[in-house]
Automatic annotation (TrEMBL):
<dbReference type="InterPro" id="IPR050134">
    <property type="entry name" value="NAD-dep_sirtuin_deacylases"/>
</dbReference>
<feature type="binding site">
    <location>
        <position position="242"/>
    </location>
    <ligand>
        <name>Zn(2+)</name>
    </ligand>
</feature>
<dbReference type="Pfam" id="PF02146">
    <property type="entry name" value="SIR2"/>
</dbReference>
<dbReference type="InterPro" id="IPR026591">
    <property type="entry name" value="Sirtuin_cat_small_dom_sf"/>
</dbReference>
<feature type="binding site">
    <location>
        <position position="245"/>
    </location>
    <ligand>
        <name>Zn(2+)</name>
    </ligand>
</feature>
<feature type="binding site">
    <location>
        <position position="218"/>
    </location>
    <ligand>
        <name>Zn(2+)</name>
    </ligand>
</feature>
<dbReference type="InterPro" id="IPR003000">
    <property type="entry name" value="Sirtuin"/>
</dbReference>
<dbReference type="GO" id="GO:0046872">
    <property type="term" value="F:metal ion binding"/>
</dbReference>
<keyword id="KW-0520">NAD</keyword>
<feature type="binding site">
    <location>
        <position position="221"/>
    </location>
    <ligand>
        <name>Zn(2+)</name>
    </ligand>
</feature>
<dbReference type="InterPro" id="IPR029035">
    <property type="entry name" value="DHS-like_NAD/FAD-binding_dom"/>
</dbReference>
<keyword id="KW-0862">Zinc</keyword>
<feature type="active site" description="Proton acceptor">
    <location>
        <position position="210"/>
    </location>
</feature>
<dbReference type="GO" id="GO:0005634">
    <property type="term" value="C:nucleus"/>
</dbReference>
<feature type="domain" description="Deacetylase sirtuin-type">
    <location>
        <begin position="80"/>
        <end position="342"/>
    </location>
</feature>
<keyword id="KW-0808">Transferase</keyword>
<dbReference type="InterPro" id="IPR026590">
    <property type="entry name" value="Ssirtuin_cat_dom"/>
</dbReference>
Amino acid sequence: MWKEGESSLAAIRASRHSSMAFCATPSAASAFPRAWLILNRTGFGQRSFCPAEGAAALLRRSNSPWWDGTRGLFSHGGGAADKQQTLQDIAKNIREKQHKRVVVMAGAGISTPSGIPDFRSPGSGLYDNLQQYDLPYAEAIFEIGFFHRNPNPFFALAKELYPGNYQPNLTHHFVRLLHKKGQLLRMYTQNIDGLERLAGIPPEMLVEAHGTFATATCTVCLRKYEGEDLRPDVMSGTVPKCPTCKGVVKPDIVFFGEELPRHFFKYVTDFPLADLLIIMGTSLEVEPFASLAGAVRSSVPRLLINRDLVGPFAWGRRPHDVVQLGDVVGGVQALVDALGWTQELDALMAAAAAKKAATKTEE
C-alpha cells in the first residue's frame, strides 16, 4: 500500500518488501566477499543479531588487519555507574573533542526540509506525474527488472530530483561543519538527492548506501559516465542513451535486485571505531542500512534526532542513548546551540549561499 505523507526515497523502500535485503550479494571482486558471506550466515538485519558481535566476527573471520587494532573496542562496556546521557552531555563531549570519530546515519527526513517532494502523497506534483505510467506498486520504480522494461517512470522521478534542483539545509551543513572540525569519521546516507555533496561533504567521507546521481553506467556495455553528462537528456524528458551502443544509461542508484555499492562495506571498520553515532531523519526500516544502528559498541553514545522513535530506540534503548524527537532541523539546531557553534554554522551557510549566487551570476 502507498502510505500518504511518507517522504520520497527511503520511504519508497520501507515497504512490505523491507524485511528482505533489496540488493544481491556483491560481486566476487568486492573488497569484502567473505564478510558478506558472514553477514548472511549470522543473519545480519535480523533483530536477534548483535551487530557489535557481528562486526567483530566480520573482522576476525575475514582475517582483516584491522582486527588486531580494534579487538579491544568490542567490549559491551558500561558499568553500574552508567547514567542516562542528555543532549547537553553529547554536546559537551563533541565540543571538548572527546568524540573525534563521529558516524552519522541519515535518511529522507533530512532532505524533506529542502523541498524534496513527497513521492507518495496524492496531489503532489511528483505523484501525479507518475500516475500516467500506471505503476503496479510504488516500489516498482526502483526494481531493476521493471526499469529494463520501462525506464520512463524512473527518469520522470530523476528529472524532479536531479542534483541542483534543491539546496542543502542546516542539517547537511551541520555535518559539513563536523567534517571541517575533523570530527566526522563518515556519513552514511540513504538519500540519492546529492545534497550532502552539495553541502561540501567530500565524497570520500560519504557512503551513499542507495547509490548516487553523481555517476552513471550504461546498462549494456557498462561504460561509465559522469552524472552531469545525463543532465540535458534527463531535464528534457528523454531517456539517456549510450552513444557507443545505444543502451540506456542508468544513474548509479541502487535498485531492488542490484548489488550494494562496494563502499557500503566501509561500515566493517567505521562502526567499531566510532565513538559517537548520530542518526537523523530515518525510519530505520530498510535493511541492511537499519541494522547499522546497532553496529557500534554498546558503550558508544547514540543520538537520535527524528520525528519518531525508531529501530532500537523504540524497543531496546541503551543507557548512553539520547533522543531528540520532533522536527529534524529543529533538533539539529538544538544540538548546534548546545555546542555553541551557531555563529560558525551561520557563516558556513552564508558562504555556501554566496557561492551559489556567484555561480548563478556567472551562468
